[in-house]
Amino acid sequence: MSATPSYTELTRDISRNLTALRTHNSEVMQGFNAMAKAAMAPGALDEKTKELIAMAIGVANRCDGCLGFHAKALVRLGATPEEFREMLGVAVYMGGGPSLMYAANALAAYEEFSNATGAA
User: Fold this and answer.
1) Are 51 and 73 in contact (CB under 8 A)?
2) pTM for the whole thing?
3) How far apart are alpha carbons 5 and 86 in whole angstroms?
4) Are 39 and 78 in contact (CB under 8 A)?
5) DSSP string, the chain
6) Is the Cβ–Cβ distance between 73 and 84 less than 8 Å?
7) What is the dihedral of CA 111, 116, 119, 120, to 10 degrees?
């Protein structure tokens, strides 16, 4: 089994790797970005709540990139460690054992970005 990845490096690498898609699939990428912007816009739910939901889905779907991008956003939005851990409990409840394994990695991503900003 490999060590927990650096989510800072992972998100940077994914962003860099998306360059080709932005160039060669620009309409798809523009559509995806517009959907993301609309979905995350504050409404009945605030942006932080929506990011907590997105992180829970990332855990349940075992998406490493999702863990990095949403952990970074949650740190930026001021999610507390208590809020983060409570969300992980719901994700594990909904996703079972595989989500428990990813919850541990999601917490590592949150802590990595928190430590980088001094928010922890």
Assistant:
1) yes
2) 0.85
3) 23
4) no
5) -PPPP-HHHHHHHHHHHTHHHHHHSHHHHHHHHHHHHHHHS-SSS-HHHHHHHHHHHHHHTT-HHHHHHHHHHHHHTT--HHHHHHHHHHHHHHHHHHHHHHHHHHHHHHHHHHHHHT--
6) no
7) 40
Q: Which CATH superfamily is domain 7-117 in?
A: AhpD-like (1.20.1290.10)
Task: Return per-residue pLDDT of the chain as tens, 120 residues.
Answer: 457 779 999 999 999 999 988 899 999 999 999 999 999 999 999 999 999 999 999 999 999 999 999 999 999 999 999 999 999 999 999 999 989 998 999 999 999 999 998 755
Find how far residue 12's CA is from the centre of its chain. Answer: 13
Using CA atoms, how far residue 51 sits from 19, 85, 88, in Å, is 24, 14, 12
Contact assessment for residue 52 and residue 94, using Cβ atoms and an 8 Å cutoff:
no
Q: What's the distance, CA 105 to chain centroid?
A: 11
